[in-house]
């Protein structure tokens, strides 16, 4: 028998083992991706630098890989897909809104929105 030709049962076992290792590797990757990426915040509205004539603004966005999220140090909540929607009263003049998210590993990310309210 030539050393380059494997019997069918040996080839099948090797292919099966490779498939099992691939599935284990993909599962491990999917479970550790949160550790690699860390928390993420995407602010959909309002846009920083905007001037408002109404005192009520709704902060919306989406987060990924988080355990907790705060708007101006008050915990807010997301839906199952990571979207949040939080109404907020602006003070007259210059306002800085701070979003802070934390993941399961304690890593944090902070984003700010700067707005002006002119009544």
Structure, described:
This protein has one helix at 8-37; strands spanning 40-45, 51-52, 56-64, 68-71, 74-76, 83-89, 93-102, 108-117. With 119 residues, it is of the alpha+beta class. The protein folds into two domains: 1-37; 38-117, Immunoglobulins (Immunoglobulin-like), CATH 2.60.40. The strands form two sheets. The chain has a five-stranded mixed β-sheet, with no helix packed on it. A three-stranded antiparallel β-sheet has the order 1-3-6, with no helix packed on it. The longest helix has 30 residues, at 8-37. It is rod-shaped. The model has no long low-confidence stretch (mean pLDDT 89).
Q: How are the secondary structure elements laid out?
A:
Elements: H1 8-37, E1 40-45, E2 51-52, E3 56-64, E4 68-71, E5 74-76, E6 83-89, E7 93-102, E8 108-117
Transmembrane segments: 12-29
Pfam families: Glucodextran_B
Protein name: Bacterial Ig domain-containing protein
Walk across the major sheet and give the strand order.
2-8-7-4-5
CATH superfamily of the largest domain: Immunoglobulins
The DSSP helix count reads 1
- From the N-terminal CA to the C-terminal CA, the straight-line distance is 90 Å
| CATH fold title of the largest domain | Immunoglobulin-like
**Secondary-structure element series:** HEEEEEEEE
The profile of the biggest β sheet is: 5 strands, mixed
Q: Averaging pLDDT over every residue, what do you get?
A: 89
Proportion of residues in extended strands: 35-45%
CATH C-level name of the largest domain: Mainly Beta
Transmembrane segments: 12-29
Protein name: Bacterial Ig domain-containing protein
Pfam families: Glucodextran_B
Keywords: Membrane, Transmembrane, Transmembrane helix
């Amino acid at each position: 028998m030539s050393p380059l030709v494997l019997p069918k049962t040996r080839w099948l076992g090797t292919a099966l083992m490779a498939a099992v290792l691939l599935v284990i590797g993909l599962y491990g990757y999917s479970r550790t991706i949160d550790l690699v990426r860390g928390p993420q915040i995407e602010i959909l509205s309002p846009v920083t630098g905007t001037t408002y004539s109404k005192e009520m603004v709704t902060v919306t966005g989406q987060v990924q890989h988080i355990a907790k999220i705060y708007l101006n140090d008050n915990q807010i909540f997301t839906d199952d897909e990571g979207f949040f929607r939080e109404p907020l009263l602006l003070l007259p003049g210059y306002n800085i809104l701070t979003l802070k998210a934390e993941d399961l590993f304690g890593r944090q990310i902070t984003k700010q929105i700067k707005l002006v309210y002119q009544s």
